[in-house]
């Protein structure tokens, strides 16, 4: 996803200092597209079990379009985005179509968001039309034979909360919990899984970079996110016993352990699974990671990093199930990537490393592909992640055009992953730094 480099580095530095660890060094600016690893045959894999949770991922603000006043509409109005959100992919009116696409894949989970800004556009006044929309989205997912995974906060809050200071304001905790309880009360009967806050570290970076959060309030914002997560976790389990609740982390290579001390470690006792978002890799011979912040389609997306990220959390939280809540790969406006990595090959390679992790005793239980369709990547429509591509800026019909990854994902789901003798299209990275030195010194070849 798009990040502003200076804000990201400042926030990483701040988080590392809060954690008592070293700050992350600024990544290099080389255009390298990948470090070569072993080119020989690598281990065979077993199929994933029949109860593995294959899914797709989306978010409200990024895909719905026709967005009401919110912090992100304010950022757009202030000229802090490249593109206006506009209609986005119009999930607001085409959700039934997109849900059917996911069903046709064989997906078992459909991740979606319930946007607070849409539900409560004015303080204390809820929009019944918005409730009716989400009612039908959740019911349609269930009717299609999939479990909803509902995200309560995917970086967006109402404009009136922005006027009150957003996460700078201690009163945000009470307001956030009041809205979240209403959502839980309404949709618990559908037995969804829940994501409380999407990628807290990345949320922090986005709020600081767009002016929504004063950097000096970083510790207070983190405290407030801990409070709302813990509060709604308890409430969900009262209303929906047996629910699966988590907050997904945005995995930052080499420094994730330090970042986790600021949030994840503080809520670990109230996580039913570890939710993990993984996109890009890093190694001493591959400095393309720097492109994540400006041209992410030039950043290496080596899928073997999935294995190391999963292994990292399996060691840190033994016994906790692990779920890849987001994984995908961007292109520039749907064009072939400079490194030639095709979406279908990326998906198959990702499945291979999931299977390797499972074979090695890592309790990975699910995988969501980001995303069902191309959508609004936090200020721009240029990065495209969709299984179905949508040219929002140039095609007023917003036609969903299947990429080659649609057939690949359908096959993976039907077969429980790649065949036993599959060889990844990209070899393992020579010295991956996804999990710091551990992933370099103990490689999975």
UniProtKB/TrEMBL annotation:
GO biological-process terms attached to the record: carbohydrate metabolic process
Molecular function as annotated in GO: beta-glucosidase activity
Gene3D superfamilies per UniProt: Glycosidases
SUPFAM superfamilies named among the record's database cross-references: (Trans)glycosidases (SSF51445)
Electron transport recorded as keyword: no
Superkingdom, taxonomy of origin: Bacteria
Pfam families documented for this protein: Glyco_hydro_1 (PF00232)
Residues annotated as signal peptide: 1-25
Coiled coil: none
Record has DNA-binding as a keyword: no
Keywords: Glycosidase, Hydrolase, Signal
Assigned protein family: Belongs to the glycosyl hydrolase 1 family.
Protein name (Swiss-Prot/TrEMBL): Beta-glucosidase
